[in-house]
Amino acid sequence: MNPIHRIESRSVALPTANIDTDQIIPARFLTTTTREGLGRHAFHDWRWLPDGSPNPDFSLNRPEHAGAAILIAGHNFGCGSSREHAPWALLDAGIRCVISTAIADIFRNNALKNGLLAIVVPAEVHASLLEHAGERLAIDLERERIEREDGSAIPFTIDPFARDCLLAGVDELGWLLARRPQIEAWEERRAWNA
Amino acid sequence: MASLTLFEKIWRRHEVEAAREGRPAVLYVDLHLIHEVTSPQAFAMLDARGIPVARPARTLATIDHSTPTGAPDAAGERSWANPATRAQVEKLLANCQRHGITVHGWDSPHRGIVHVMAPELGHTQPGMTIVCGDSHTSTHGAFGALAFGIGSTEVAHVLATQCLLKRKPRTLAVHVEGCLAPGVTAKDLALHLIGLIGVDGGTGHVIEFRGSAIRALSMEGRMTLCNLSIEMGAPAGLIAPDATTIEWLRGRPAAPVGVDFENAARDWLSLASDPGCHYDREVHVDATTVRPSVTWGTDPGKVVPIDGCIPIEADANAAKALSYMGFTPGAAIAGQPVDVVFIGSCTNARLPDLRDAAAVLRGRKIHPRVRMLVVPGSEAVKRAAEAEGLDRVFRDAGAEWREPGCSMCIGMNGDIARPGELVVSTSNRNFEGRQGPGVRTVLASPATAAASALAGAIAAAASTLAEEAA
User: Fold this and answer.
1) Between the CA of residue B246 and those of B10, B58, B142, B242, what are the distances in Å?
2) What is the mean pLDDT of chain B?
3) What is the pLDDT of residues A20-44, one digit of tens each?
4) Does residue B68 lie within any of the structural domains?
5) B243 within a domain of the structure (yes/no)
6) How many A/B residue pairs have CB atoms within 8 Å?
7) Which of A40, A110, A27 is nearest to B88 (CA)?
8) Residue at a domain's end among B166, B187, B222
9) How confident is the model at residue B466 (pLDDT cuts 50, 70, 90)?
């Protein structure tokens, strides 16, 4: 995984509350056995009309939002299933950061493991980010702050371990594999005590 | 000694390393369940590093999500939705064989929806940690096991190390006291609680369901309730093991036997939360106020009693849901025309669920407009239902009696409705398009779903039975 220090992009808003993982990627696209190429299916049934053409009313389709990598999403983003296809699809569609007032647990876990930043901000900050959707933002992961176009900065916190992994560009599996001796010793102690 | 919650006791038993210096805890996983949809990428992650599965005996596989539920034809050919679903199943079978993992494939008499078959076989036991790449893993919390859904990367973590890196969640106690009224099921209670707590109310928490109404539930009812914890935002729900739990587990193939079982049972009973223990949050609910309930919107928190009205729209979110559902604010939910009825899923496809539905249908015919699918949760449920003649009740009523699987709950296998159709479904999610593009879903109990099939419109089971008595 490539290290992540800073994400700079215009923001795009999707203010609907409770956007579930079936909206992020419908289940009929989960028949794959790989992680690649899911970007076209991100928000599929909102983004594409039944005839396959882009839905002009969907914010991510508007020309002024082309290339936007920072999504300001409604409350409780990513609720529903555990499908990691949701962050895979978003990343493949060019989204690198989701900001909301609440992000569902399993989605947030999956997002951070794939380098998709999932940031929770207070309601008033969220409202302001929505109001100024389209502004240029910079996410500084090291300093844990969102830098706004007007020069102000919003602090945020992210799981410190996930942050270290993202900054270093290492995945958590490597760290866990290095714990194998401790895990095996624990297994032996437990068997002994049983 | 400090008073501990059920959750805290299980957590402490599985902490290989506590959280420290910004690092999450290393949590040991006793039982890892896998299926064909969320595991192939995880196996590929192991292959990319050239590492084996650490403890293959602690992983159990089944095929359920993308499997056809039509009976195979004379040549044994199954009605796959598309070649990709078949390839997914074949990939799982090959991965399991390669890594020495037990898999309940087509030839297994125990195959079924992962959250139905694992408890049935006795693999799910109190005090365990259980994970699966499926959010409804919360089901297993009914046994007093800490069980939650994970993504595919974490599936790889468990395959490679039998552990997860995990932050300790907070605790939420939901006390439900009093008796549920006759005809009010665990599904109605769960829908009521989702409406009350909200689809985000349990985020960051493990829920412990407590109180006399919970103790009175059967194991199947407890599984239905814990299954829906995730719809409250909580990845895990828990119920303390008691005599009901122990008697349900006694004699199951994977449960301990003889003196080992008695010793285990004593230990399981000791897991209950201690008097005076601390929860981060608590909610109190009067069970006598719960009525048969259904959803009216596009998330499971938009709930009304079946004799209630579709709310007058309150905010943009409700307006969007009403627009998708095509419902008129203020109209009665009962009487809305129904096209399809689905009885199935890890929420409501166990034997008592099928009995509830059959009791409503016995000797009657479903409405001619309605297509009704009944999909047992496992091969074992199917056999038991057929032994009681429930399949005949469903067939005689005009319903389809199908092969076990997730089916129309997620619609990956081709079991979907047509755009615009209204499905009354015993499953767990009424999200937009969940049961097919443009399909509208109303979540309900098996009895309500069956009554709605008869009426061709959303209907309460109680009115059906009252009609019969009149």
Assistant:
1) 17, 22, 12, 6
2) 96
3) 999 999 999 999 999 999 999 999 9
4) yes
5) no
6) 169
7) A27
8) B166
9) low
> Distance between CA atoms of B16 and A189, rounded to whole angstroms?
10
Nearest-CA residue of chain A relative to B264? Answer: A194
Is the Cβ pair B49, A173 closer than 8 Å?
yes
Q: Within an 8 Å CB–CB cutoff, is residue B86 touching chain A?
A: no
B22–A31 C-beta distance less than 8 A: no
Give the start-to-end residue ranges of the domains of chain A. Answer: 6-193
CA angle B280, B165, A32 (to 5 degrees): 110
Q: Mean pLDDT across the stretch B68-87?
A: 96
* Structural domain contains residue B204: no
Token readout for B429 is 């999610």
Closest CB to B153: pick one of A76, A113, A159.
Answer: A113
Contact B410, B434 (CB under 8 A): yes
How far is A88 from A37, CA to CA, in rounded Å?
A: 9
Radius of gyration for the alpha carbons in chain B, expressed in angstroms and rounded? 22
pLDDT-derived band at B464 (thresholds 50, 70, 90) equals: low
Residue that finishes a domain, picked among B106, B137, B166 = B166
Helices B461-469 + B446-455 axis angle, to 10: 60
Beta carbons within 8 Å of A30's beta carbon, 6+ residues apart: A83, A85, B37, B65, B412
Determine the structural domain holding residue B154 and report its residue range: 6-166
* Residue pointed to by tokens 């300790």: B168
Tell me: do B155 and B301 sit in the same domain.
no
CB contact under 8 Å between A176 and B165, yes or no, is yes
* pLDDT for B98: 97
Q: What is the mean pLDDT of residues A163-180?
A: 95
Q: Which residues pair with B131 in a beta bridge?
A: B32, B148
Number of domains in chain B: 2
Residue B54, token pair as written in the block: 């650490």
Which residue in this structure is represented by tokens 């552990």?
Answer: B163
- Residues of chain B with Cβ-Cβ distance to A106 below 8 Å are 135, 148-151, 235
**Cα of B335 to nearest chain A Cα, Å:** 28
Q: Which of A18, A27, A180 sits opposite B317 (nearest CB)?
A: A18
Q: What is the pLDDT of residues B199-248, one digit of tens each?
A: 999 999 999 999 999 999 999 999 999 999 999 999 999 999 999 999 99
Looking at domain A6-193, its CATH architecture is Alpha-Beta Barrel (3.20)
Give B40→chain A minimum CA distance, Å: 5
Q: In Å, how far are A182, B11, B163, B194, B281 from B30, measured between CA atoms?
A: 16, 12, 9, 29, 28
B152 contacts on A by Cβ (under 8 Å): 35, 84, 110
Residue whose C-alpha is closest to residue B188's, from B286, B307, B292: B292
Residue that the structure tokens 């293959």 belong to: B56
Query: Could you tell me the CATH number of the domain that includes residue B348?
Result: 3.30.499.10
List pLDDT tens digits, range B365-415.
999 999 999 999 999 999 999 999 999 999 999 999 999 999 999 999 999
Judging contacts by C-beta atoms under 8 Å, the chain B residues touching residue A51 are none
Q: Which residue has the tokens 């916190």?
A: A157
